[in-house]
Amino acid sequence: MDFFVARYASVLAVMTTLLLPSVASATTVLRCQVEQGGSTRVVEATPTTDPYQVRAIDINGRFRFKAVMVGDATHIDYIKLYVYDQSARQPRLLHEARYTTPVAATPPTFQTGVNYVYAPYLEREMQYQCLLTEIAP
After folding, report:
1. pTM, 2 dp
2. Could you say which of 66, 74, 81, 92 has the lowest number of CB atoms within 10 Å?
3. Nearest to 85 by CA among 74, 95, 75, 73
4. In degrees rounded to 5, what are phi and psi of residue 57?
């Protein structure tokens, strides 16, 4: 009889594991909306431990945008946002914003507001705003 009880318990455990949805933690994502020249682009950044590996994204061949979120899944140390002018030789830094310990709530709440960045010539303008959110796996 003990054999049947043990067998029933193990079958029940396997079925429960297969039938119930798995509970996984959400991922923290910094979602930035970048507007330039009449087009809009969404750039997403996830936590990283190496900010130097994050690449700047080309925005219409005129600007480059880089969003860096340093930390891990449980704690964000800081967020840095960079905008570069896409010059003929190499990109030049136009704007840098640094936000230290932006996450104090669960779920995280952080928003930059709208930032306007202007190129030093040709009257080019770029706008961006970022929002820190959690997305389900």
Report:
1. 0.75
2. 74
3. 95
4. -100, 135
Contact 107, 84 (CB under 8 A): no
Q: Do residues 107 and 134 touch, judged by C-beta distance below 8 A? A: yes
> How far apart are the C-alpha atoms of 78 and 86, rounded to whole Å?
26
Identity at 36, one-letter amino acid code:
Q
Q: Check: CB of residue 117 under 8 Å from CB of residue 130.
A: no
User: Is the pLDDT assigned to residue 74 strictly greater than 80?
Assistant: no
What would the mean pLDDT of 48-52 be, rounded to a whole number? 94
How far apart CA 44 and CA 66 sit, in angstroms, is 10
